[in-house]
Amino acid sequence: MNIIKFITAGSVDDGKSTLIGRLLYDTNSILDDQLEAIQKANRKNDDGTVDLAILTDGLKAEREQGITIDVAYKYFQTEKRKFIIADAPGHIQYTRNMVTGASNSDLIIILVDARKGVIEQTKRHSFLAQLLGLKKVLVCINKMDMMDYELAVYENIKEDYLKLAKNLNLSEVDFIPVSALKGDNIVNKSERMDWYQGPSLLAYLEEVEIPETKNNGWRFPVQWVVRPQSADLHDYRGYAGRVLGEGLHVGAEVIVLPAGYRSSVKAIEFNQEQLQEAENGKSVIVHLNDEIDISRGDFIVSANHSAQTAKNLEANLAWFENKELDTNQIYLLQTHSKVSKIKIPEVLYKYDVHNQEHVYNESVKLNDIARVSLKSADEIVFDPQNEFPENSRAIIIDPRTNITVAAVIFQPA
Question: Fewer Cβ atoms within 10 Å of its own Cβ: the N or the C terminal residue of the chain?
């Protein structure tokens, strides 16, 4: 994999932005004008050095308060790979922003403050990583300089986190002791932690292998029905969208969901050119051999590996809104370009982020993670998280405010 997308997560002041800033600074990935700007900035570390966290603090409120509020994206590359970094906020009220960034990541870096160890936000972010199906977790135990670079501190935190990982069934977990402030084990190996025999953070990112997601078939959510209805294109009918998964090709047998009609692919267009196949992530126009009533929000899927459809189903939910979930309220569920009216008539249970046990008979409030039942006015087209991650997620919108109030993950209980 030549491009790695990863997110940094952790609690407030664990050093996420500083770690990213150090990574960019030490790899010479900062433009001259950016470097000049941060050198002139008022924010300095206690020792008078430049506060590298400024590099990811794009909002004025972030720079003033020295915290991360929104997800900041940064890009850099080395001779071996290209990287897309998402810096997630640590404050509990911005957990929704972390979910947004993590949903598109291959790897999550969870920072743990060496002084504090595994705390509630560590557990919450790890649990969300498990729910979102992230296959690789890297735990960076930061601020080792404040603990005199002691091996025992690293080993104790590692032991505590491995217990959490076992409870969450996180099997692909690695650890690196670092000091983002001093640059230890970020780009170069630290001489002050000679007891650590593993790679630096950069070396790890350049070499880590992300398990490939093996989707069942492919999915094509229809975003637009193309009907020019002009004199020279009177009979033209195409379906525009972005391909999810591999295997969409001319001649492929398909099913149109939720109606269930069958057909086959007549042609695939990209920028007025004819393609024989469309790779994952490519935006194309698909033509079918049969005249079928297809609208925005419908799915064209592989006939050999169809998706699931249901009006009544269960799902995991991460609640983002200050107002608690109302089981009598009508919400909107958006899956790709399809928007459906739904109700959430029952909260089956909530998850306790401390011990992952089920909590019953409680309301769902800000940052809660729960198992709920959904009832939709339309058939929902979806896949379980473990079978086709790109089609296993949705958002819930409050139609009264148009605010996104929750993220939904379709996966077995």
Answer: C
How far is the C-alpha of 298 from the C-alpha of 337, rounded, in Å? 8
d(CA 109, CA 10): 8
Residue 213 lies in a domain: no
Q: Quick one: 46 and 190 in the same domain?
A: yes
The pLDDT assigned to 129 comes to 87
Residue 212 included in any domain? no
Concatenated DSSP letters for 183-210? TBTTTB--GGGTT--S--HHHHHHHPPP
User: Across residues 92-109, what is the average pLDDT?
Assistant: 75
CA distance 343 to 375: 5
Q: Is 413 exposed, middle or buried (0-12, 13-18, 19+ CB in 10 A)?
A: exposed
Rounded to the nearest angstrom, the gap between the alpha carbon of residue 342 and the centroid of all alpha carbons in its chain is 24
Please report, as a single letter, which amino acid is at residue 6. Answer: F
- How many angstroms separate the CA atoms of 131 and 33, rounded? 40
Domain count, the chain: 3
Give tens-digit pLDDT for 172-226: 999 999 999 899 999 999 999 999 999 999 999 999 988 776 677 899 999 999 9
Do you know the residue count of the chain?
413
The answer to whether residues 19 and 88 touch, using CB atoms and an 8 Å cutoff, is no
| Burial zone of 27 (CB within 10 Å; 0-12 exposed, 13-18 middle, 19+ buried) | middle
- Tokens 């990112």 map to which residue? 205
Among candidate residues 383, 288, 300, 378, the one with its CA nearest the CA of residue 338? 378
372-393 pLDDT tens trace: 999 999 999 999 988 898 899 9
Contact between residue 11 and residue 121 where contact means Cβ atoms under 8 Å apart: yes
The DSSP result for 227-276, as a single string, is: ----STTTT--EEEEE-EES-EETT-EEEEETTTEEEEEEEEEETTEEES
3-state secondary structure at position 98: helix
Higher pLDDT, 135 or 158: 158
Is 291 inside any structural domain? Answer: yes
20 within a domain of the structure (yes/no): yes
Structural domain of 34? 3-207
> Which amino acid appears at position 267 of this protein?
A
pTM score: 0.83
Final residue of a structural domain among 207, 240, 273: 207
- Residues 240, 192: one domain? no
